[in-house]
Amino acid sequence: MKTIFSVLLIALFSLFTHSVFAGDDYVIAIDEARINISSSLDGSAAYMEIINYTKDKPVTLTQVSSEAASDVRLHHAGKPAKALANGETADHTVTIKARSAEELSDDGYYVYLEGLVAPITEGQRIPLLLTFEHGDSYLVDAVAVQPGTHLHGDESDGYTAHSDH
Description:
Blueprint: H1 2-14, E1 19-22, E2 27-36, E3 43-52, E4 59-65, E5 69-76, E6 94-96, E7 100-104, E8 109-116, E9 125-132, E10 137-145, E11 149-154, E12 158-163
Parallel strand pairs: 2-10
Antiparallel strand pairs: 1-2, 2-3, 3-7, 3-8, 4-6, 4-9, 5-8, 9-10, 11-12
């Protein structure tokens, strides 16, 4: 019965979100995954909304990786990463409370890709592997857009880009 409920829930949420994932005791969705275009190889930022449909448990995004860059980290616009005793810095994590969402944006948490292997061009899809605290990882394609652009659902191709003015 639990499996049937999970399948129906995933099907329902798939109508409204880009990517829906379910585990034994959670259902999460990733919406509006996008990355800024970049003509340089220095880096780029990726944004998305992570929605936790789980009834009573938070989920925590602990790591993001991509073959598009040599270093991918969760950053926060207002919080520097904590320094560790060995001189390294601890990566940020993003916790999404039960029945809530967290927007990764340029004024909060976001994904930073440093050392790009190639320039990122508009419309390109960049795979991002999101790893959560429970150990599951999910592959999401971030669409390359002009900085400040948000994606909105569209029945024809999944997304239409709209720029902030």
